Amino acid sequence: MTNGWRNWRDHPAVHLTRHFFDALFDLGFLSREGADAFIRVLLGIIAVIFSFGLLLTRIYMGKYAALKGAADPAPYLHALAADTTLAFGLPMWVAAFVTVLVSHSLVPDETDFRVLTPLPVTRAFVFGSKLMALTIFCAIFIGASLVAVTPLVGMISSSRHAPNLPPVSLAAYWIVGTMGSAFSVFGVVAVIGVLTAVLPRSRVHGVTAAIRSVMLVALMLAVPFIFALPADAGRLAAHSRAMYLLPPAWFLGVERVVFGGGDQYTTRLALIGLSAFSTVACVSIAGYLLLYARFDRVMLRSMHVGGRRAMWRWPLGRNPWRAAVRDFTLATLRRSSLHQGVLLGVASCGLALAINRLADKDVIMWLRRMDTASFDVVIAIMGAPWLLMFATGLATRAALALPIEQRANWIFRMTENEATRVDQLRAVTRLMRQTTVGLTIALMAPLEWALFGPRATFALATNAACAMLWVEILLRGWRRIPFTCSYMPGKQSAAQATVVGIGLLVLGVTLCGALATGSARAPVFGVIVVSVFGVLTWVFARARVALWNYAPLEFDDKLPSAFESLLSIGE
Amino acid sequence: MLQVRGLTKRYGALLALDRIDFTLARGEVLGYLGPNGSGKSTTVNMVVGLLQPSSGTILLDGKGQADDPVAYKQRVGYVPEEPYLYTHLTAPEYLTLVGRLRGIPAADLDRKSTELLRLFQLHDSRYSTMAAFSKGMRQRVLLAAALLHNPELLVLDEPFSGLDVNASLLFRSLIAMFAAEGRMILFSSHRFDMVEKICSRAVILSKGRLVAEHTVSTARRGDSAALEDLFVRVTDQPDFSPVARAILDVVRA
Fold this sequence. Notes:
The complex is a heterodimer of chains A (571) and B (253). Chain A has 23 helices and no strands. Chain A has 571 residues and is mainly alpha-helical. Chain A is globular and about 70 Å long. By secondary structure, chain B is an alpha/beta fold. Chain B contains 9 helices and 10 strands. Chain B has helices at residues 40-47, 69-74, 91-101, 106-119, 135-147, 165-180, 192-198, 225-234, 241-252; strands at 2-11, 14-24, 29-33, 55-60, 63-64, 76-79, 153-157, 184-189, 201-206, 209-215.
């Protein structure tokens, strides 16, 4: 080992940066085994990103085989522009997502403040190390997503019709793609930085946590629109002004202007992009400098709370044990940004998929006309309830499974009572039903009513029966008070979870949609379906309550055996 | 009366606690002393029912803890060594949670928690989540939660850690009055002065074994020298002067 390397490695800035970097992987609520499992999950996710990039390339090969061979370059160039927008959009989304996930850690926290301030190091040194750790963390994910999409860019830009040679196209993609990803990072930092700087100190933590959840939901809802970007080839060709609102299109403009192939329209897109980039960069840098100057605002929690915090009380709750768990659960979901983020983030995936189905051209036309719906419209609408219930069920279960202040669970251990255990755990069933069944029915009722009229009641009853059964499946083996049990991520491999998840989505959309449609068209069939699902739900519920009656509460999670992991859902 | 008989805890090959015997009479405050790793917390966790003994029995008024753990735990209040509580809740929310888990009727719970918060000087902070509380404030919340159900046995694990002078004086008075009402208090601590001032008797633990018992004479209350001498003698504490000297040598080098 050379002295230069050793000196660099032992430099205090490198040490502190490494400390901050490692802390970004430490979610705080995981045990040592859980943290190891989390690293495996992250590696699995990166592997899935790479596989997805290769799959996308394979899918696009078919499309481009014909385009590249055509004599007229116009269709190829239009498709290339739209697909390049997608190629920019994916890393931009990943960059924004990762930055939102670590946005609670943009500046050193209270522990850093208390540990590092007494040491003979400057604030600039501490902030610089933190910033470097965040930059490396985000760069890893941005780099991974750029690498994952590179085969696609290489494949689509290898044509005699392409405006640039493939190496130039790839270099342009990497340079402008990095710029687009940096735009996403700056955008998130700007929002959090400005809010932290301008809000009263007593509100900083609460409001920024809420904004993080909102950004997470917005990102999830943006996913269908990103994958719809290739469909915008016509709009790009027609120089539509609507593209001025799409950030990935701005960076297509930058690429074209800088590396060739630009025109007046792409120059306008590039100008918007560069203006937006410089604005968010300036605002985020200013916000960060402001935090640097007033770092006590975010490091130390305020004792003062602006107003009265009303205890969340449900007027109809009479059972104190159920009420105890219900109020604890609701208070945690309202105040913990981690749990709120998981609940809203995963649930909004389902909402995004449902919106993707409902944003279909035929459905929009039908909504305008409100006449007899075609088969395609019925299929599109009736597939949405499963997407909603699937995601909200998983989201609620995942949020309830994550611990909070695990060492404080002694109060639940100490007061565990066989006679009241079932009452306590029923709070979980109720919440799961409220989110999974209630939310799905509330969101779908107007559309299904518009589709079937009064007969929608049978379709909605079938939806509800499916959701009730799904809740029971998700609660199979559950015997935890929410947030009190340790958590081991990665009970299934990322690849296995992806395959099982996609399989369940496709199967559920088909089956649940067909059963609900059949129920609306033939009420007798609907009654039969609801009865069968009702009996199945009752059987599962009986088994669940029987388990709760004899099995003690679970406070320590464990990795399942190989066989159990094959059967586990939603872990 | 609390009777601990032959209490033993094994973690695999490790014997954490070896046949511990002690009794705690009504109206008594028993000090439970020992160096780090001596098995104090293990004993406390077993007495409050958080940990199952490998062997031995714990009897409260002649009834075994293992016979009816729920009934036993209904009679026990516990303040843990570290202020482990749900800091995203406010103090009233935490007390409501604990009260409901203990099955206290709603009207009683509201009244008691409001009054306790006022008396523990936490009422002004009732709308703030406990994340913003100091260690002393959290300690007061834990004591309020431990008293909420009017326990007969109070188990205190280092309850004075982080408390300011006023709160410490209040705690001391409270413990004395609580014992005067015929209740039992098991007081686990490292602080000889506190044990001397509060306890009527102390037992000393070393390496998982009970090595001494000390009766605090009323006349000598406040003088912790006798207890400290006994502690140093029975727990084989080394002479720390050479260690201190070695530390200074390392620092100077």
